[in-house]
Amino acid sequence: MIRTLHITRALMTAGLLETIRRKDLYVVVILTVLLVLGASAFRVFGVQGLEIFVKDVAFTAIGVMTTVLTVLIAARQLPEEMQRRTIYPLMARPITRGQLLVGKWATAFCTAGLCFIILALVTLGLLASLGIPVRPIFVQYVLLKIMGIGWLCAMVIALSLYLTPAANVTLSLILAFGSGVFNRLLLMAHWEHDLNALWLNLLYGILPHYDYFDMSKKVVFDWDLAPWWVLGAMGGYAFISGSIWLFIGWLRFRKQTIG
To answer: Residue 259 falls within a domain, yes or no?
Structure first.
C-alpha cells in the first residue's frame, strides 16, 4: 500500500508538470475571464436581475471548460505513454499494471481537480469584484464537482484502453454532456409504463450520470445548502461507480500487449 502511494505521488507530480508545460490551463483561465467580463458588460444598461445572468454564464463556462479539460487530461494519460514508449521504463520498474492504472487515474484527477479549483477561485474573485454575491452553497458545488471529476477521469481512462484516442474523447464528451439528456429521454419515452419496472431501473442505473454532480444552477439561483447526507451519498456513488470503471479498464489493461 505504501509503495502504491509513492508510485501515485511520483506520477501525479509528473502529470502536473506536463499540464503546466502544455499551458492548457492558461487558455481556459483566459477564456473564463473573458466570458465573465463579457457577460458583466450588460450591467452598464442598469437592467435589474442581470446578476443572475452573469453568474449563469460564469458557472456554465466553468462546467463546460472543466469537463472538456478533464476529458482531454484523462484521455491522454495511458495512450501517450504508449505512443512515446515512455511506458517501457515505467513497466521495467517493480510496478504492477494495476498500480500504474490507479496512479494515472490519480494524476488525471488531481490535475483536473486543481484546474477546476483555480477556475472556480478566479470566477469567484471576478464575481466579487463586480459586486455579485455567491451564497455558501458554492462550497457544496465545488465539493460535488470534484467528486464528478474523479468519476469522469475513471470512465475516460477505462475507455482509453478500449478505444482510439479520438473515439475516446468524442464518446466521453457525448456521455458527459449528454448524460442528463439521455436519462430524461429514457424516462419520457416510457412515461406511460410503470417507472418501478425492473428493466427500466436497471437501464437507468447503467447509464452514466455525470449530471448528478452539477449544482451550478443552484448556485446561480442562490439555493440554501443541500443536506450533507446527499453529498455523502453522491460520494459513495462516485467511489463505487468510478471503481467499477477502473476495474473494467484493468480487465483490458492486464492482458493488453504493449508495443
So the answer is: no
Q: Which domain holds residue 120?
A: 2-253
**pTM for the whole structure:** 0.85
Q: What confidence tens digit (pLDDT) does each residue in 159-171 have?
A: 999 999 899 999 9
- Residue 47: the pLDDT is 45
**Residue 127 placed within a domain:** yes
Binning pLDDT at 50, 70 and 90, where does residue 111 land? Answer: confident
pLDDT exceeds 90 at position 7: no
The answer to whether 118 and 208 have CB atoms below 8 angstroms apart is: no
For residues 136 and 42, give the distance between their C-alpha atoms in angstroms, rounded to a whole number.
Answer: 26
Residue 258 lies in a domain: no
> How far, in Å, CA of 85 to CA of 178, rounded?
34
Q: Name the grid cell of 146.
A: 470534484
Q: Which residues make Cβ contacts (< 8 Å) with residue 220, sequence separation at least 6?
A: 52, 55, 56, 59
19/17 Cα distance (integer angstroms): 5
Question: What is the total count of domains within the chain?
Answer: 1
